């Protein structure tokens, strides 16, 4: 554990809390991509197959359970909650996310660190997480205006990955034999996807204006 890892975990947790707050307070999921949420649920389920077999720490186990539980709860609300599901922008959320799932799985079969079930699913989760935000970004571009809570959710989600890149850099220089290059490359790709959103987010903050993305 280091300050960058902790900051990454906290910003990731904040992003989830912001999204849950939006859904709970407004009884609406407008502007949120169900397909991105489904991808994140799949990411956590695939990554944490070791939940009950490889105990690291109480903190580690609790965070895994929180990420799995919250992602499944969000998907359930958007699909099943009788009020929340009415606000889902189905006509805007049309990204074919199953291509991302298939592509990530094929890549994991070809490029992995060890040919075991757990390592392949770990690599799959890393590749899928790198592109899971795409349906959300496409939806926001199509809708144009972005409400405050949705904008904060995406911002903190991007900040989490940026902090994790700093964590990997720190660990590379302070730990012997640390080198998960799959995480590094995928993390850089994921952070790059947020670049355009970050620009418009900071511009709206600087000008004290409503966040708008170009169509």
TrEMBL record:
Principal cellular location given in the protein's record: endoplasmic reticulum
Which keywords belong to this entry? Endoplasmic reticulum, ER-Golgi transport, Membrane, Protein transport, Receptor, Transmembrane, Transmembrane helix, Transport
The Gene Ontology biological process annotation of the record reads: protein retention in ER lumen; protein transport; vesicle-mediated transport
Q: Which PROSITE patterns match?
A: ER_LUMEN_RECEPTOR_1 (PS00951), ER_LUMEN_RECEPTOR_2 (PS00952)
Per the record, its GO cellular-component terms are: endoplasmic reticulum membrane
- Record's superkingdom? Eukaryota
Pfam families linked to this entry: ER_lumen_recept
Q: Where in the cell is it found?
A: Endoplasmic reticulum membrane
The annotated topology with respect to the bilayer is: Multi-pass membrane protein
Residue ranges crossing the lipid bilayer per the database entry:
58-77, 98-115, 121-140, 152-170, 182-202
Question: What positions belong to coiled-coil segments?
Answer: none
Q: Does the keyword section mention Endoplasmic reticulum? A: yes
What GO molecular function terms would the record report? ER retention sequence binding
Query: What's this protein's family per the entry?
Result: Belongs to the ERD2 family.
Protein name, as recorded: ER lumen protein-retaining receptor
